[in-house]
Each structure stands twice: as structure tokens, then as C-alpha cells.
Design a protein that fits this description.
Elements (H helix, E strand, L loop, with lengths): L14 H14 L4 H10 L7 E5 L5 H8 L3 E6 L2 H11 L10 E5 L13 E10 L5 H12 L3 E12 L7 H11 L16 H8 L3 E9 L2 E3 L2 H9 L5 H6 L2 H12 L9 E3 L2 E8 L2
Parallel strand pairs: 1-2, 1-4, 2-3, 4-5
Antiparallel strand pairs: 5-9, 6-9, 7-8
């Protein structure tokens, strides 16, 4: 499925954090829908699936799984995104009271009273592009894996090779503006074994992988800048300079991807690893 070119609408949320969460939900999150669908199709996600999503954002991946009949739960550390996910899933945010639950906290906060284990764990926030992102995922996996039934799938996702991801050149803005370079949160080139290394640290057994084309398409330059800024990959650069400087550099980096009709289009490839809990 090819992402739809989207037009940004003014946010109703107040404050920079709420605005960014809205930008993520309205602009950026849908760019990874082909990844969600490829993983769910391969694992035959359906009514028998009990899924826990780490870093679930504003809940689009959970919604796609729920539309296939899965019982879903998600965790994220961004209150704005969690609020949007709850609205999206018509969930009150209390685990165990419905087919969907989203919490701002840790994986253990999603456990049902009867401690029914999950049989699918996903981490759809791609790693391998920001300094320290693999280290940030490890504690969440350590907390979540005990909640998953033995033999169940754990899905890790990451950016593909820079030569296959047009957005990589744009993300280098984050590294160039960060002081010192590669500070926590700054861009770095993905490594071939990023996903396998994280799986090994979590005690998981690799059981297959795949690549999925996820082009980033925006209706105009403003939407592209707001969408990319909502990812958090430019936070270190903003701290080192200021938002206006980062936006200016982003526009310059995006210019080669601006088409005659004013849209912005960047082909990308993302990778996923399916691992199993022994």
C-alpha cells in the first residue's frame, strides 16, 4: 500500500508537545502502514492474536491490527500520542476492560488482572537511525518479553540501508546541527545487524526477516517539515541550535525531493525482524 499524500491541517492541540503529537498522527504515522500490513499478513494476525505494541505512538498500528480482529494493547511515553491513540481506538485507557488499551507507562501496566499472556509483541518505531535508540529499546523489551507466551513472535523494525532510503540524506541534518555530533537522539547511519543485536540482548531467537517499501509522501513542503519534525529525530539538533534553524536546513535538504506539483516524495525501505521467545 502506498501512503497517501496528506495535507496538514492546523492542530487543535495546545502547546508544542500537543502540536507535535497531532502532526505525528495526521502526517507522519501513516507512512509506515505498508510495514504494519506486511508484518500482520506474514504472521496471520487475526481474532486469535493478543498483541502488545511498544512505542505505539498515536495507535495506527494497533488500529490496523484491531481491524483484523486482534485484541490489542499499547504503551508509549508521550502523553499526547497516548491521548490520540485512546481516541482513535475508542478506549478509556484502562487495561483489560475492552478489546484495546493504551497506557502512558511501561509494558507491565497493560497486564490484565488474570495475567493472560500476549502472543505477539511489536516494536514498530524503527531503530538504527538515532544515536542510542537501540539502548532505549532494550529496557522496554526486558519488561515486555516476560508478558509474552513462549514461542510467540517479537517483531523489531529498523531503517534500511541509507542507499535505499532517500530520507537518510535529510536526516543527516540532525547530525550536522547536533553538538557534539552523534549526541543522544542525533542521527547515525543504521548498521546491518542492529535488529539482530537487540534481539540477542533480549534473549530472543531470530526466525525470519523482511524488507518493505515505505515511501514518505507529503502534499507540500510544510507538511514534510512538520511530519519529519514530529518524529523526534531532530530534537537533539533543536536543542543545539533552535527550531527555525532546523526547519531552514530541513527545507534545503528536502528541495531535491520536491516535485513540480509541489508534493514531496522520498522512496524508503524499512526492515523487520521476527524473533521468538524461547
Amino acid at each position: 500500500m502506498t501512503p497517501t499524500l496528506v495535507q496538514h491541517h492546523p492542530s487543535a492541540a495546545s502547546g508544542p508537545r500537543g502540536t507535535r503529537a497531532r502532526d505525528w498522527a495526521e502526517i507522519q504515522e501513516r507512512m509506515l502502514v505498508p510495514l504494519y500490513e506486511a508484518v500482520y499478513a506474514r504472521l496471520e494476525v487475526g481474532p486469535a492474536t493478543r498483541l502488545l505494541g511498544l512505542g505505539c505512538g498515536s495507535g495506527l498500528a494497533l488500529l490496523v491490527a484491531a481491524s483484523r480482529g486482534a485484541c490489542v494493547a499499547g504503551v508509549d511515553d508521550d502523553p499526547g500520542r497516548v491521548a490520540l491513540a485512546r481516541t482513535r481506538l475508542h478506549d478509556e485507557g484502562t487495561p483489560g476492560t475492552g478489546t484495546a488499551a493504551v497506557v502512558c507507562g511501561g509494558p507491565a501496566d497493560t497486564a490484565d488482572a488474570d495475567c493472560t499472556p500476549y502472543n505477539l509483541l511489536t516494536a514498530f518505531e524503527p531503530i538504527g537511525c538515532a544515536a542510542g535508540d537501540t539502548d532505549c529499546l532494550a529496557p522496554a523489551l526486558a519488561e515486555a518479553v516476560p508478558l509474552v507466551r513462549r514461542g510467540s513472535a517479537v517483531v523489531l523494525t529498523g531503517w534500511g540501508p541509507p542507499e535505499r532510503c532517500a530520507t537518510s540524506a535529510v536526516l543527516r541534518v540532525a547530525s550536522r546541527l547536533t553538538n557534539p555530533p552523534r549526541a543522544s537522539g542525533g542521527w547515525r547511519a543504521p548498521l546491518r545487524d542492529d535488529l539482530e543485536n537487540v534481539a540477542a540482548r533480549a534473549g530472543l531467537r531470530p526466525d525470519g526477516s523482511g524488507r518493505v517499501a515505505c515511501p514518505f509522501g507529503y502534499s507540500d513542503m510544510d507538511s514534510a517539515v512538520r511530519g519529519l519534525m514530529s518524529t523526534g529525530l531532530f530534537d537533539a539538533a533543536i536543542r543545539a541550535t533552535d527550531p527555525a534553524q532546523v526547519e531552514k536546513e530541513l527545507v534545503e535538504a528536502l528541495h531535491p525531493h520536491l516535485r513540480e506539483d509541489g508534493t514531496v516524495w522520498m522512496p524508503n525501505v524499512f526492515r523487520y525482524l521476527i524473533a521468538r521467545k524461547p
